[in-house]
Amino acid sequence: MDGYEQGRGAGPPGPRTGIAALSPPYQVAAALVLAVVVLVSCVHLAMVFLHVAPANTVSKQHGAAVDDWVYPEFEQNWKLFAPNPLQQNIAVEARAQFRTADGGVRHTEWHGLSAQDGAAIDGNLLPSHTQQNQLRRAWDYYTSTHDTKDRPNGMRGELSAEYLRRIAVLRIGREEAGEPADGLLRVQLRSVTTNVQPPSWSGEKLDPKPVIRLLPWWNVTSQDLEVRDR
Q1: Which structural domain range is residue 56 located in?
Q2: What tens digit of pLDDT does each residue of 9-24 get?
């Protein structure tokens, strides 16, 4: 019986699978590729964690390297342990003043810039960073560098207003067909902020009335028109 058992168990080895089935040079190459993938994955997870985590010694010391890794492909729009996440819908709209062919002046209706981006993103598996972030970041940049009376807080405030103005010029100037090429005189923007209503079971009550922030009219410069016509 012992001889029978030994003979039955001593068969030819089964076929090798996975990396073991490769020749030695390919095994080395596969091992190196796997090591690189694991290393990059670990670095990516660490960078994203430092980006979304509260400020600490490491993120302060290596903040530039973290930002270079994260932006723009891996941008996060939330913060780890955020005590009060955003509960508002902010829609940015713009209108323009044109000089008509007969020398008069015409004002356009309000153009829903945020609605345009939303329509471009909805159902799009690969929306562009411009559609997702350009207007939103420009508006956040403006509001963070201006007070409630739209007075800039230094040079960054002036730059943010110029950036937002040129976005409006690009969007409206291209939509208003039939106007003279140099007929765009001024643009104006506003935001319509609406609270996201809580679920019925929460018991929380929020004012459903939208809040409108109206910015002043901005004169369109020749540099703005050059950017539009490129």
Answers
A1: 10-70
A2: 555 665 666 666 667 7
